[in-house]
């Protein structure tokens, strides 16, 4: 491998998933475990507020200056999928301000089952589901569930209370992901947090070796906004104009 192929910038790690599955909590968990040994920064995407950034600042897991919100407006997925400029600028600013930065974590706005990051923005992505969303949700599939670098089934502690067989949910996750990793996680389960930390460290090692290839889980499915407009990213692959019917 030529030396020039070995990246010198921070690894950008995306965390996506439906509303309330625990993305901010997961990022806080990662920061809590790694901020002593690595230089970390966080970009959050919120529709109209800076709620996620405020939560993370309040969690006290990182210097608040290292956490920056991006306000995405009405269509949050555009900012992580079609026009990633505002997120890239936020990540690059953090890298410059706190150089050297090892990992910039980027949280997507709370969104539906199909939101995935563009590989132009993140090097590695985690898709987060939670047990409280129901045991069936894994089988429903979608690009993030099937092809993100890691699928997290979060809040495993809630399984008995919502009548979900967590082991089965994880097994079915492995089936739809053709062997890609699936991790059951709970903030009450220290072993699961250690496994998550190790996955992040392994990803960083792979990224730094120059062997990691950022994977595009695929475009978002067409979806309808509250005002009735249809938003389709069907042709949003690089080099193709994307359909954006607002
Ligand atoms: N029982 C349990 N609850 C959790 C766990 N992790 C997070 N939660 C709770 O789940 C709720 C949502 O967590 P957040 O981290 O805000 O989720 P989010 O995905 O960032 O939410 P949005 O940004 O609104 O989409 C909060 O009430 C958390 O306290 C867990 O491991 N177990």
From TrEMBL:
Q: Where does GTP bind?
A: 17-24
Q: Enumerate the spans annotated as CobW/HypB/UreG nucleotide-binding domain.
A: 14-182
Q: Which SUPFAM superfamilies match?
A: P-loop containing nucleoside triphosphate hydrolases
Q: Name one GO molecular function term.
A: GTP binding
Disordered, as annotated region: 221-246
| UniProt keyword DNA damage present | no
Q: What's an example GO BP annotation here?
A: urea catabolic process
Instruction: Kindly state which keywords UniProt assigns to this record, in alphabetical order.
Output: Chaperone, Cytoplasm, GTP-binding, Nickel insertion, Nucleotide-binding
**Which compartment or compartments is the protein found in?**
Cytoplasm
Pfam families registered for this protein in UniProt: cobW
Predominant subcellular localization, coarse grouping: cytoplasm
Which segments show compositional bias classed as Basic and acidic residues?
Answer: 224-234
Q: Could you state one GO cellular component term attached to this entry? A: cytoplasm
Described purpose of this protein according to its UniProt entry: Facilitates the functional incorporation of the urease nickel metallocenter. This process requires GTP hydrolysis, probably effectuated by UreG.
How this chain assembles, per its entry, is: Homodimer. UreD, UreF and UreG form a complex that acts as a GTP-hydrolysis-dependent molecular chaperone, activating the urease apoprotein by helping to assemble the nickel containing metallocenter of UreC. The UreE protein probably delivers the nickel.
Entry-linked PANTHER family: UREASE ACCESSORY PROTEIN G (PTHR31715)
> Belongs to which family?
Belongs to the SIMIBI class G3E GTPase family. UreG subfamily.
Q: What is this protein called?
A: Urease accessory protein UreG
Give the gene that encodes this protein: ureG
């Amino acid at each position: 491998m030529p030396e020039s192929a070995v990246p010198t910038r921070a690894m950008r790690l995306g965390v996506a998933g439906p509303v309330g599955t625990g993305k901010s909590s997961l990022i806080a968990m990662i920061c809590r475990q790694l901020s002593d040994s690595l230089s970390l920064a966080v970009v959050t995407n919120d529709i109209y507020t800076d709620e996620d950034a405020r939560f993370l600042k309040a969690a006290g897991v990182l210097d608040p200056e290292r956490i920056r919100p991006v306000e995405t407006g009405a269509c949050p997925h555009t900012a992580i999928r079609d026009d990633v400029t505002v997120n890239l600028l936020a990540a690059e600013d953090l890298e410059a301000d706190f150089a050297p930065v090892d990992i910039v974590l980027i949280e997507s706005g709370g969104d539906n089952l199909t939101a995935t990051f563009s590989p132009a923005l993140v090097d590695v992505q985690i898709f987060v589901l939670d047990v409280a969303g129901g045991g069936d949700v894994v089988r429903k599939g979608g690009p993030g569930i099937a092809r993100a670098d890691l699928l997290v089934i979060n809040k495993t502690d809630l399984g008995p209370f919502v009548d979900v067989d967590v082991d089965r949910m994880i097994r079915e996750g492995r089936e739809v992901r053709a062997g890609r990793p699936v991790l059951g996680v709970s903030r009450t389960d220290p072993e699961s947090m250690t496994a998550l930390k190790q996955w992040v460290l392994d990803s960083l090692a792979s990224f730094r070796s120059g062997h990691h290839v950022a994977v595009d889980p695929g475009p978002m499915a067409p979806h309808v906004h509250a005002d009735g407009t249809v938003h389709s990213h069907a042709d949003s692959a690089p080099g193709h104009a994307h359909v954006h019917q607002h």
